[in-house]
Amino acid sequence: MVVPRISAADIVDGHLHITFDDGQRLDLPWFWVRDHSEDLQSFDPATGQRNVDTFSIDRAIRPESVSLADGVIRVSWAGDDPESLLSLATLGPLVSDDRSIRQRRWRDPADATATSQPWADVMSGAKTEPSDAWTAWLADLDRYGFALMHDAPTTLDDAQALADRIGYVRHTIFGGVYTLSAEEVPHADSAYGTDTLLPHTDGTYSHDAPGLQFFLCSERTGTGGESVLVDGFAAAAALREGDPDAFDILTRVDVPGRYLEDGVSLLSRRPTIRLDATGEVEQITVNNYDRAPFVLPEPDLSAWYDAYAAFHEIINDRSSWWIMRLEPGDCLMLDNWRCLHGRMGFSGRRVFHGAYLNHEDLESRLRTVQIA
């Protein structure tokens, strides 16, 4: 995330008028300024939490003077309120783009040129230290929605260590760090088979679908079983351009996903394409295997089926599939809100360790290493 610097601060038309060195401007009401003050009475710099009593601030509060020194805006008030301070740490995000992970997209797999990083280099040092391999790996995860490692140890403890590198393991019905193999089937799920799985997202039956998923290859024999990825953001952009009515339907109709096994009945609903407040695509939810029955009045149901089929056709255009056969020691991390994943049918033994993590932890890691 590129953050501009503050170049000027003035009183203009009853507001705090701020100018940044990239030409952007920001006008803030005085009440907002007092509410967000970073003086030590109003703000705890250790926690980043607000201490000011918002509801006791005079709604008609006005300043006596405004000054800018060393990148910090100082506002002196006409009453007894302490001098208010505003820094770039507070103001920068208000004019900077913090949505890069929802705006990037690739349609041609040749454009998704993620570079596999050595496990030892990525995992060395503190996770907030921007080593070259750690930064490059996070940058790929941000830019393409997936990232690769090689020469990884292949135990469950090592898979846990990778998860800890980002955030914390999200426990689901599959447990924490789990093992995926066709020879051991602890759950009633198609992931444990050997057939081809078309591109899909996981957790459509969860109210808050896992944001990240990884596969660490532990054992591999036989043929086939290549991993498949599709950039769901690119697919949504193609649908939006080619069939805007279909795109609109898929942003409005909540589709239920479910998971059923003995003692478990999970159900959740959300649109196939979820938008943020600005109209940008924020999350893709597609899993035809787990789609639960639902109906709409006609002609809405037919229109939904047509839109869903149009999106399916884009997603399953194999010219847009990124395909890779993971071998022991290879690890694939993917953004489950963005990239659909699947696999080709296979024979032989194919054993992966994996886990789910939360999307906010990815976003946090990108910010702390200053990728996003």
Q: Main beta sheet: strand number and arrangement?
A: 6 strands, mixed
Order of strands side by side in the largest beta sheet? 9-10-20-13-22-11
What would you call the structural class?
alpha+beta
N-end to C-end Cα span? 4 Å
The global form is globular
- What is the fourth-level CATH superfamily of the largest domain? Clavaminate synthase-like
CATH architectural arrangement of the largest domain: 4-Layer Sandwich
Total helices: the number is 10
Question: Strand portion, in percent?
Answer: 25-35%
What does this structure look like?
The chain has helices at 30-35, 88-95, 100-103, 119-123, 132-144, 156-166, 232-242, 244-252, 300-315, 359-368; strands at residues 6-12, 15-20, 25-28, 43-44, 49-50, 63-69, 72-77, 84-86, 117-118, 146-150, 178-180, 197-200, 212-220, 227-231, 254-261, 264-271, 273-275, 281-284, 322-324, 331-335, 339-343, 350-357. It has two domains: 6-95, 2-Layer Sandwich (NE0471 N-terminal domain-like); 100-368, 4-Layer Sandwich (Double-stranded beta-helix). It starts with 5 loop residues before the first strand and ends with a helix. It is globular. The protein is of the alpha+beta class and 372 residues long.
